[in-house]
Amino acid sequence: MITMQNINNINLIGELIRELKKLRNEMTPLAPLFDYLLEEFSKKNIKVIIPRRINVSLKFDGMINLEYFWCPVCGRIYRYDAALGRNFVCACGGRLVQAYIAAPHYITDVSSTHRIPSKEDIFHSVEKFVGIWCSNVKKIKRIVRINPERPVSSLVYACPDEARSCNFKSIINVGGKSIPICRYESGRDASLRGKAYVVVRPQRRSNSVMKIVPPSEALTKPFSITLYKQVGEDKVDVEFEHECMPGISSITFTKVRVYQLTLALLAGAPYASKGDRVPVVVRREDGVVEILGRKMETDGLIIKLDPEKVTEVSETLTAAMGFDESESTPTVICHTIAHLFLTTAPIVAGLSEHEFGEALRVDPDQEIYEVLIYDNSPGGIGGIKSLVEENGEIKMDYLALIARRVECPRSCRLACKACLFTPNCMWLNYSLNRFAIRFIVDPEKIAKYVV
Prior knowledge:
The protein is α+β, with helices and mostly antiparallel strands. The protein has helices at residues 12-26, 31-42, 80-85, 307-320, 330-349, 396-404, 437-440, 443-446; strands at 46-49, 59-60, 64-65, 68-70, 77-79, 97-98, 101-106, 114-116, 133-134, 139-140, 142-145, 155-158, 169-174, 177-182, 184-185, 188-189, 208-213, 220-238, 248-267, 278-283, 289-305, 356-363, 368-375.
């Protein structure tokens, strides 16, 4: 069941399948995800949904349970209903926050795709922490920090009932306070260590370890593909000095129809690389895989690269500079140039980074190497328009900022936060190589532009 059809002469499904096949060869850590989606496409088992309403829940089977809250002062654990009834204030007077969870960190490349809903959650809530249940008091133990300088690695269990006697209770002094620490750990006495540290073990995934972390947006990263089509007759051929950017053949300001398709969420511990995360897709009970989409018409800059220059740069990066083929493909080169324009646009426009988006169209067979930078709002928000002068020339301030991105102040190997990373990258800042820039943009000639 593929419900997206040909719209305005753009074959979305065909383009999406071509993108998946291309990325499957270029992004090896995510190959299992691309293989899975391609197989489902072959079965016509994909449904692209453009949602009109999004419901938020603290619990999602197969992903996470955020119904537990924790007091940083005394360590008590509350369920959501109890925390809400107390206006999120603990009995000790401390302010309740969402409790720690455990996130998987994969030691080897993930070989399968996780499908939700599922009986097995990717992230473990505190109720699944090893040894957290006190069989003596019949309550969840408290979790306290015994070293403020190491807030996570020093988490230990404390007795849920300080007044009740227990053979596994011992008193320690933390910051001038006496805390009844629990020594019972996973069915045995932890007296040799004096305390039972909080630990979490993976259920069935032997190639991973579980890391205790606070809930945050960094636990899941959307991996997307953006397709686009130029619409309308109104367009402006943007003027620029070709000698400053010899690898760029043309820049056009135009209206575009953009389709943002989120293929999967990459789930794992914060700051984990894509190879250390598990791809998560939504598979309904009837077997249909759902892909979330977004469609809009907006303003954009289409930047076309010279095909001969792209080929030359790819060969130079591999043969002369020693980069792997996966680090010097036409896709990597185009994505790098997209970030060159994308990371500098918010500074000129005075807008948030999230107000801009990127898309690529790379087809070596047809010698198409295009980059799109667009306003990430329906109808356009004026950000892209602010990069071009009224007479059709690209703004000098924009060129000056681009010139400053040619080199990395940290001299990183491929790309980093100091040069090309941006929080609104559709590929999570992968497939970048800053050394491609100096061949598309002439460092010496563009240096004449200054802010």
